């Protein structure tokens, strides 16, 4: 499940993923960020993610590109140890601000 909230005051779009972060989330995840054109920063709340696969990594890269690539302000928040391990193996700690 994917939920999103846009804070007009801060310009931050928060996307929360619950459960499995895999291809079944692709459409909802893409719609969550594509529908907001005025966001200046993005938070992806991973607190309730129990599984993450390569398609989820691809979705995060799509978000990063949408947000401005190297200039993007995208934070991956509250990931558990297993999710952080996957993100680090994929070298995502070099592309994203990852906060436990």
UniProtKB/TrEMBL annotation:
Q: Which SUPFAM superfamilies match?
A: SpoIIaa-like (SSF52091)
Source species taxonomy: Bacteria, Pseudomonadati, Pseudomonadota, Gammaproteobacteria, Oceanospirillales
Under InterPro entries, the record lists: STAS_dom, STAS_dom_sf
* Pfam entry (one): STAS
Query: What is the protein name given in its UniProt record?
Result: STAS domain-containing protein
- PROSITE patterns per UniProt: STAS
Q: The STAS domain covers which part of the protein? A: 11-100
Q: Which Gene3D superfamilies match?
A: STAS domain
**The organism's place on the tree of life at top rank:** Bacteria
